[in-house]
Design goal:
Number of helices: 10
Order of helices and strands: HEEEEEEHEHEHEEHEHEHEEHEHH
Structural class: alpha/beta
Number of strands: 15
Strand content: 15-25%
Helix content: 25-40%
Largest sheet: 10 strands, mixed
Distance between the termini: 66 Å
Number of domains: 2
Length: 334
């Protein structure tokens, strides 16, 4: 039966992504529109209001909600209430989400009270999913955790928090009860998120003190040119005389990455998920994002929340720096 559920969900997604979206009059619903019989706000978390670079005011309160009978995609954390996407379960605009997230018509039932730890990729895990999961873990009673994959950082998180009762589901499930912390509060990362991550990592010690980290990556296929990765070896050589530690985060566990970044006094890295680890550094440091033409404001925004000093560097220009320029960049006396 498990195989049948997986097959049906796979076919649904293939059809949606290749054929297109059917015209639906109403595709989503907000918590405020859901009947109180199936939706109960169990806790509200207060955080500092913060004006982000998108000129949107973050809500200072985020709700933890207990739902009766929602349908959950364990992989993404998206929820449906009576065939409508619950808006607070995702940061994606619903119109975009529908392109790859069809409404499930077949699902398995899961008993008791559950919480979900999604796997949307490492960046989204750290920045969006882990802070909210940890909020629920600390504040609410639950019987089991539903996960959508056995990614190493998912399993390491469960082990770190000493959670033994978890179930893996690779297809949508109907939950007797589900507790979750809402997502769409007006920004991708907030002071409240940062506080939760600092609490999560508070018992993890730095690997050593005052390291300059140069984040490289073994998989250079994704975004090779637009991230400037073809210059990786040349750029690494520019920094090697400045006591820089070249690291490949694919080789490290989640706990090892947290420990490593807690020891950083300066971080240099190519545009990618590894830079999300700046959230673990508990003091203000310099963050240098290297890219070519892959330009986003995500890491600048995260750096501002964490009170780091952020600079973007173009890879094709950085390769021409001499020792004096590198020294000035890093603010190191030679």
């Amino acid at each position: 039966m498990k195989f049948f559920y997986e097959l049906v969900w796979l076919l649904q997604r293939l059809i949606r992504r290749n054929i297109g979206i059917a015209k639906i009059k109403k595709i989503s619903v907000s918590i405020n529109q859901v009947n109180s019989n199936i939706c109960k706000v169990t806790n509200s978390l207060n955080g500092q209001k913060y004006l982000i670079n998108y000129k949107q005011r973050l809500n200072s309160t985020r709700k933890i909600v207990k739902l009766t009978g929602p349908i959950l995609n364990p992989k993404t954390g998206v929820l449906w209430i009576k065939k409508l996407i619950l808006e607070e379960s995702t940061v994606w605009p619903v119109s975009k989400l529908l392109k790859w997230e069809p409404t499930p018509f077949l699902f398995e039932k899961v008993k008791s009270t559950s919480i979900n730890l999604p796997d949307n990729g490492y960046y989204h895990f750290v920045i969006e999913d882990l802070p909210r999961f940890f909020e629920v873990f600390r504040n609410q009673r639950f019987d089991q955790v539903i996960i959508g994959s056995k990614s190493s950082y998912i399993l390491e998180t469960l082990n770190f928090l000493k959670i033994e009762n978890f179930i893996l589901k690779k297809y949508p499930v109907y939950c007797d009860e589900l507790v979750f912390s809402e997502k769409n509060i007006g920004g991708i990362f907030s002071k409240l998120d940062h506080t939760e991550l600092k609490n999560f990592s508070s018992y993890i010690k730095p690997s050593r003190s005052d390291q300059i980290l140069f984040i490289d990556r073994r998989n250079k296929q994704k975004g090779f040119h637009e991230r400037g990765l073809k210059y990786a070896d040349v750029i690494a050589n520019l920094f090697k005389n400045f006591d820089t530690k070249r690291v490949y985060l694919e080789d490290l566990s989640l706990i090892e990455q947290i420990s490593l970044f807690k020891s950083a006094k300066l971080v240099i890295g190519f545009h990618g998920a590894g830079l999300a680890n700046m959230v673990w550094i508990d003091r203000s440091v310099k963050i240098f994002e290297i890219t070519e033409n892959r330009i986003t404001s995500h890491f600048e925004h995260i750096a501002s929340i964490c009170e780091h000093e952020y600079t973007m560097l173009k890879a094709s220009e950085l390769v021409n720096y001499d020792a004096a320029q590198i020294s000035k960049l890093l603010d190191i006396q030679t």
